[in-house]
Amino acid sequence: MNLHPLEPLIQQYLLEKDITQGTYDLFKIILDQYVTYLKENQIHFPNTSGIISFLALKKSEGCSTRWTNHQIGTLKNFYRYLRQNQQRLGLSDVYGFDVMHPIKREQVDHNAFKPTLSTDQAKQLLTFCKERRHTRSEARDYAIVYLMLTTGVRSIEVRRAKRKDLKRIQQQLVLYIQGKGRTAPDAYVKIPKGLEVAINDYLSLRKDNNPFLFIGHSRHQTTPYLSRSFVIKMFKQLMTDAGLPETNVTAHGLRHTVATINLLCGGGLESTRQLLRHENVTTTMIYAHHVDPMTEEPDNAIERMILDNHDQEV
To answer: Are residues 261 and 169 in the same domain?
Structure first.
C-alpha cells in the first residue's frame, strides 16, 4: 500500500488546524505512526478494535500512559474532524461513525513514583556510555545521558536544544532550554565541566551546519532534530547494553533519578524544585516521600555523587 486513504486527509487536517508548531509536530508524529501501522497491516478503514491494537502495540514498545493519552486525544480530534467535515470533504459514510467513542484516556496516577536508577546504576550507565565511544552517535549518546543525569532536563528539551543555546554566564557554561509549554528558550541549566568536555568532543566530530545540538547520524535521517521515538529506542538499547534493562527506567526516568539523587545529596525540596523547574513545590514532594529526610545544602552535588572516585576526563 503506497498511499493510505488517510494520508491526504491528515495533511488537510493539519493544514486547517490553528495550532502552535509544537502541537503541529506532536499531532504529525502520532498520525504518521498511526498511518504507518495501518499500511503495514493493510488496513484501509480501521475500526475501534484496529485502533486499540495500534495503541497496544505502541504501549508494548515502551510508550508511557501520558503518551498513550496524547495518542488517544490526537486520534479523537482527527476522527471528529473527519466526522464533522464528511460532506464537505466528500468522504465515505464510514467516516460518519465515531470509532474513537469507546476508547477512553487512561487514568494517570500523579502520585505514583516512577522507577529511578540508584547512584551506582547511574554511574554504571554513564561509565558504559563513556567507555564505548567510537563513533559520532556514541559520543552523542554519552553527552545526552550525561546532560540528562546531571541537570534533570526532559528529553523534549534535549531534542529542542540548539548549538546557539550554549552560552557562558561569566565563566559558567549554561544551556538555555525551551521547557514544557514554552515557545522559546527562557531558562537555563548549568553545565558541569565533565559534561562540557563531552559535548565539545561530540561537536568536534560533526562537520555539518545543522543548528540542533544533538542530531541523528543515520543516512535515513529525515528531520534536522531527533524524534521522540528515536530517543525512546536509543535509551532502551543503552539500558540493555549497559546491563540495566530490569530497572524499567525510561529516558524520562533520568529526570526522576536526578530529583531523587539531589535529595539524597542533601538538597531540600526547594533546591530540587528549582533544579527540575517545577512551578509548584507540591509537584516535587512526591520524591521526598521516597528518600530519608536530609539537611539542606546549597550545592547541587549530583555529578560528584554519581562520579565519586570516577575520572571525569573524557
So the answer is: yes
Q: Which three cell numbers stand for residue 247?
A: 530497572
Tell me how far apart the alpha carbons of residues 99 and 136 are, in angstroms, rounded to a whole number: 45
**Rounded mean pLDDT, 288-304:** 50
Does the pTM surpass 0.90? The reply is no
Q: Quick one: 90 and 147 in the same domain?
A: no
Instruction: Establish if 108 belongs to a structural domain.
Output: no
Query: Nearest-CA neighbor of 271 among 298, 233, 232?
Result: 298
Say if 133 falls within a structural domain. yes
Number of domain units in the chain:
2
Helix axes 119-131, 253-264, angle to 10 degrees: 120
Question: What is the domain-level CATH number for residue 13?
Answer: 1.10.150.130
Regarding predicted confidence, which is higher, 297 or 30? 30
| Residue tagged 528518600 (cell numbers) | 291
Q: Is 143 exposed, middle or buried (0-12, 13-18, 19+ CB in 10 A)?
A: buried
* Contact between residue 159 and residue 226 where contact means Cβ atoms under 8 Å apart: yes
Query: Any idea what the Cα angle at residue 230 is, between residues 226 and 234, rounded to 5°?
Result: 115
